[in-house]
Specification:
CATH class of the largest domain: Alpha Beta
Number of helices: 9
CATH superfamily of the largest domain: Rhodanese-like domain
Order of helices and strands: HHHHEHEHEHEHEH
Largest sheet: 5 strands, parallel
Number of domains: 2
Length: 182
């Protein structure tokens, strides 16, 4: 994947800056290099990427890590759908499953019509009983948890899983202001 990064990362970029620009970097670095997932492989936000890679005996791989962060950001971008794209699908009457990954207290405040709450049982059904080509849109408050859910299901072969970019909050702002914001 050769996408143009929105902000350049150098070996001297701090982890705080990287995670702010590329939230997927946290998942990417853990996935590929086992960096950042636990106390023994952690880092501080003021460390540079180069320092982190050297501390984890991967100093020679810093440029590869930068490219992998860019690739992960592009994969995350492709795994998202905008509120207007979702509205267009719904207006056309396309069959789409809306899956809410928020906490119960959030669901009590606001929810998208015709959505289902992700439970262990529903996750099992999606993975084992649903057609792997079903269109599934996961959503949360801001699009972060739903992106994690979409990535998980994509990784398990659900090819049309997407995350609602900006979550229900952005959907309320851009599409349906009757949905309460919190």
């Amino acid at each position: 994947m050769n996408s143009t990064p929105t902000q350049e990362i150098t070996p001297q970029t701090t982890m705080g800056e990287i995670l702010s620009l590329y939230p997927s970097a946290k998942r990417a670095l853990f996935q590929k290099y086992h960096i950042g997932g636990c106390s023994s492989c952690g880092y501080s936000l003021d460390q540079t990427l180069e320092e982190v890679m050297i501390n984890h005996r991967r100093g020679k791989e810093v440029n590869n890590a930068i490219q992998f962060i860019y690739q992960s950001a592009e994969i995350d971008r492709m795994a998202q759908i905008t509120p207007s794209e979702l509205k267009e699908m719904l207006d056309k009457g396309e069959r789409v499953h809306l899956i809410d990954v928020r906490e119960d207290w959030e669901i009590e405040i606001a929810r998208l019509p015709n959505s289902q709450v992700l439970t262990q049982r529903l996750a099992y059904e999606i993975l084992n009983q649903w057609d792997k080509n079903e269109k599934i849109i996961f959503y949360c408050h801001s699009g972060i948890r739903s992106l994690e859910a979409a990535a998980y299901f994509i990784g398990h072969g659900v090819s049309n899983a997407k995350s609602l970019a900006g979550g229900i909050d952005r959907y309320s702002l851009e599409i349906d202001p009757s949905i309460p914001r919190y």
